[in-house]
Give the backbone structure.
Amino acid sequence: MSLADAEVDVLIVGGGPVGLTARALLERWGVRVSLVEKHGELSPFPRSRLVNVRSMEIYRGLGLAGAITAGAFAPEYGRIRFRDTLHDRDFATAAMVGINGPIPESPVTGVVSSQDRLEPTLLAAADAEMRFGAELVDLTEEADSVVAVLVDRRSGEETRVRARYVLAADGANSTVRQRLGIGTTGPGALAAVTTVVFDADLDGWCADQPAGVYFTAHGSFLPLYPEGGWAWLGPTPEDAEHTDWAGLVSRALGPGPDAGVRADVSRVQHWVMNAFVAERFRHGRILLAGDAAHAIPIVGGLGMNTGIADVHNLCWKLAGVLQGWAGPSLLDTYETERRPVAQRTLHQAVANSKLMFEAQSLRHEQLQSGEAAPERVELPWSDRYFAQLGLVLGAAYRSDAVLGDGALADGGTPPEPTDTGTGTDTGTDYVPTAEPGHRMPHLWLTPDRSTLDAFGEWFTLLTPDPAAWQQQATAPGLLRIERLPGEHADLCGLGPQGALLVRPDGHIGARWRDRAPSETALRHALTAIGGSPRSSP
């Protein structure tokens, strides 16, 4: 059968949360997008279970935060608990800061919610084409496009799609990354893991001490949905094919008030816990995001959220290049900005895993010694360790899409961007800052409107004196000017006529501490951040 051509601006490969979020973001920008997913439906497995505070800020911008929160667990589930068996008392516990309650650094709160509960909300958030059961089998890069060959997994029919760009969000075993020959760096495969989804009446075991995850000596237990359902995660047995999963999970529950409870198993999934970062995030017109670009161990819930931040960084850049108000060089800043974040996140997640195992090992040694084990174990980290706000809210970008203070008075060479490193080394502490490159701090513009609510499919100029900058607003469709209340000016390092130019992804692109240095300063800054735009898309 002859191949039939279809044309789109962006072809997204992979229908998980990262691909679905990119589909919604690109549609908001007016980009023609098609998403293909090789499986016949959304994943039925819980997989990622934490939507962190930064992801919820992104979903607030898409108008989805309320729906996601409505289907999620209550804030008191934003905690991890360590126990010998599920029915035992905690021997250690830690809060998930930003999940277990509101924080002053953000207008939203993250949630514990399983991936299979999140994905339908993301799917419904856009009308762009979504093709299930379509597997990418070949890619050919041409001068101004990429040709993808797809196979319908039911009929075997081949179709061909020509796209201006391809966004690969097809997982840790990414077909796209492998076909491009892009290598990875990092520890690689850490463990073979099995997830068992089951039902059992465990309310008497955990109702008074809720948690998003219970780490035990016999695997981890995770409540799946507020209305019920559980998952068990543990090492994959050598003879997985003949394992009695219901019996294994029931034994792992341990003796308790409902001794002898039987787990009713509904799904079993074997998977590999990977830890790596791709050597490149871009190959011509093909860009990697999510697990295709970086596989992050699950401890701390950083993997999916890092991918969501990837596409939030990338989609406005793709839109700018496709629509002609930005130059192709803007896409170079995607890898420049996001790959260091992925490397720091990988380091943090591997450290999380080691410390988790250290806590369990310490408890195991106490029990094996025959001595009376204490009721509490001193954790090898502080309560702030799993906060990670510095990592998710404090990431600072250095690239050509970030201009230093006093940038571009007359269109000259931009100064080097400031990088204080605030919050990006330990991943725990976060100190809000309005330094260029950082996420704009959450500040209330009105009693119910955050600075973060001022950002969208446009650049935003925040200034105490909008009138002083109004004459420079030469791109009304791409720029909005917002008044920043005077009480916030000092925190942002601004004088009475200073201004912050905030990119569509909420990161500060430029800062003028006081009045505009020239009548064209703002226009030159927009041009510099976007690269040299083409005359047409």
